[in-house]
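re: ur question from the group chat, yeah i did fold both. here u go
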Amino acid sequence: MKIAVFGAGHVGSALAARLVEREHHVTLVASDPGSPRLAAAAAASGAEIGTAVDAATVADHVVLAVPFAAIDDLLTDEVRDALAGKVVIDATNPLAPDFMSLTVGHTTSGGERVAERLPRSHVVKAFNTIFAATLGTPTLGGAAQLLPVAGDDPDAKRAVIDLGIQLGFDAIDAGPLSNARYLEPAVVLLLQLAYRQGLGTNIGLHLTRV
C-alpha cells in the first residue's frame, strides 16, 4: 500500500518506520523538503521524501502527523484537491503550548476541524492516542495497546482498523468522528501521567474484556 505521512517529527518518523517494516511504500512530507530533520527521518525509516501534492496524489492513505496548528498552512487548495476521495488518518491533537491541555474540545474536536477542511476526503481519527515512544512497541506490559479509531465512513474506518491490527495494536471501532472529542482528551491524561506524575512516555491505554 502507498502511504504518505505528513510530518517528520517524532510521531511521523516513528509511524513511517513501522509502516515500512510492514512493507508499505511510505513517502515522508515536511514543510521544508530540504530540512536535515526530514532527511534523517527518511534515512532512519527507509521512507522516501516527497512533496505534499505529489505524495497525496499517488497515496492510498495519508497520515496527518503535523502539529495541529500547522493544519491550515498544510492544507492548501492544491493539497486538498489531491486528497479528494482519499482516506486521511488524523493523528494530530489540538494541544496548548504547554502540551498539558487542549485548545479545542467539548463541542467539537481537532478531528472534526480537519474534516471541515477536507470535505471531499474520508477523515479517520487514529494513532493520536499513542505516544511516539511506544509506536514501535505495540505491546506494553504483556498487553496490546488500545488504538481507538473514529470516523464516519465505514469502509475508511475499517481500512484504518486493519492497518492498526497489522501494526500490532488492539484497534477497535470507536464510533463516529465526533467521538474524537473524547479521544483527544485521553491524550492529555497520558501526558499528565507521563510528565507531571513522572511515569514517563513508555505508557499506553489498554482495554480489558470479559
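okk and heres the other one u asked abt
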Amino acid sequence: MTSGERNRKTTLRTRLRAARRSAVMPAMAAEVLIAVAAFGVSAGQAVCAYVAAPSEPGSVEMLDALRDRGLRVLLPVVVGSSLDWAAYDGELRPGAFGLHEPVGPLLGAAAVGSAALVLVPALAVDHSGVRLGKGGGYYDRALTLSTGPLVALVRDEEFVPSLPAEPHDVRMDAVLTPGSGLVRLPL
C-alpha cells in the first residue's frame, strides 16, 4: 500500500467517524434476523456478533433478537492484541477501550471458527467486500480463523463503490444496511 492510499484510509476514517457523531445509529435487530435466514442459520448454531458502541450500527436488542431465535451468540473480548470470544447470556460488563463484553468464560480465539455467521462492525464496506475498520487490525486477525459467512453492518451511506485495500484485509461476504438489507458481495 502506498503512502497515498494509507493517507486515504486515515482521511476516510476521520470523515466517517465525524459523520457518525451526529447520526442516529440503527438498532439492526430486524436486519440481522434477515441475514440469519438468508444464510440458513438455525437454532442451536453460533453467531459471532459485537456489542455496538454508541457510534456503531447495532444494539443490545440486536443481540437479544439473535438469542430469542435460539442462537448461541458469541461476542468478542479484547485480550492483548487479539480477540477472544465468550457466550452472551444477557449480561455485559465494561471491557477494553470502553467497550462492553460478555461476562462468561473465554472460549479461545478459534471460537469464531465455530460460528455459522459472523456479524462484523465496520466504518464502511465497498462493493468488492473490502471493509474499513477502526484501524487496530483486531478483526482482520480474528477473521482469518472464521469459516462462516462474514457480514459487515454499516449505515446505507457507508456502503461505497470502492475503498483502499491492503493484503491483510479480510473481505466480507455480504453487507447489511438498514435501507438495502442484505447485499451479497462482491457485486
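fwiw on the second one: Residues 3-21 form the longest helix (19 residues). Helices lie at 3-21, 29-38, 60-68, 138-143. idk if thats what u expected
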